[in-house]
């Protein structure tokens, strides 16, 4: 039996929702958007009548539409590694580090401490980029998990693109992440 649900993805250009390259619609902060996702975050994927939020759940949904592509890994241990990456990227790298730089007001009501929070966020993001660079280099394939492309790789690409928004030349300190962008013909 074929599975051909109707899909609608809410994303934002250059945002973390970019990996979920499906049909898209931007409406992030409108009242209509809030009624779809009260968390007011993208990505949001509508599959028939189901509204899916949170990056790892959206990536899982899209990956499961094409099981033959092995986007969640080619073995149980690879799937475990994919979720290990996605959880860390969503929580520490995206919410904690990037969030403290770009959404500092969520971390304190006192603007006087914002510069210190941002500085710490930048320090954390540098540690995370260094770790990503090392981890992707480990299998020697240019991919995050095993020898092939998984749902993790486009998430890393977005993070790499954010590096140059943080500091013009920051990306150059992480050659493996740089390579991801060059390979981004996937
Ligand atoms: N926990 C969510 C976070 C998603 C998220 O923060 N998305 C950003 C775009 S990169 C967003 O919607 N930002 C709007 C805001 O922070 O107000 C997930 O993993 O999907």
Automatic annotation (TrEMBL):
SUPFAM superfamilies to which the protein is assigned, alphabetical: GST C-terminal domain-like (SSF47616), Thioredoxin-like (SSF52833)
Superkingdom of origin: Eukaryota
Protein name: Glutathione S-transferase
């Amino acid at each position: 039996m074929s599975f051909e649900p109707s899909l609608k993805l809410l994303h934002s250009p250059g945002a973390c929702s970019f990996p979920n390259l499906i049909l898209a619609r931007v409406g992030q902060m409108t009242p209509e958007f809030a009624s779809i996702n009260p968390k007011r975050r993208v990505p949001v994927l509508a599959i028939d009548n189901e509204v899916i939020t949170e990056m790892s759940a959206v990536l899982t949904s899209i990956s499961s539409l094409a099981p033959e592509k092995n986007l969640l890994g080619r073995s149980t241990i690879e799937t475990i590694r994919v979720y290990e990456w996605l959880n860390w990227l969503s929580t520490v790298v995206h919410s904690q580090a990037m969030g403290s730089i770009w959404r500092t007001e969520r971390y304190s009501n006192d603007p006087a401490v914002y510069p210190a929070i941002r500085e710490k966020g930048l320090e954390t993001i540098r540690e995370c980029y260094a770790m990503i660079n090392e981890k992707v280099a480990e299998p020697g394939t240019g991919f995050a998990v095993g020898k092939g492309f998984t749902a993790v790789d486009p998430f890393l690409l977005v993070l790499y693109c954010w590096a140059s928004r943080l500091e013009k030349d920051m990306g150059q300190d992480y050659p493996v992440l740089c390579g991801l962008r060059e390979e981004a013909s996937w």
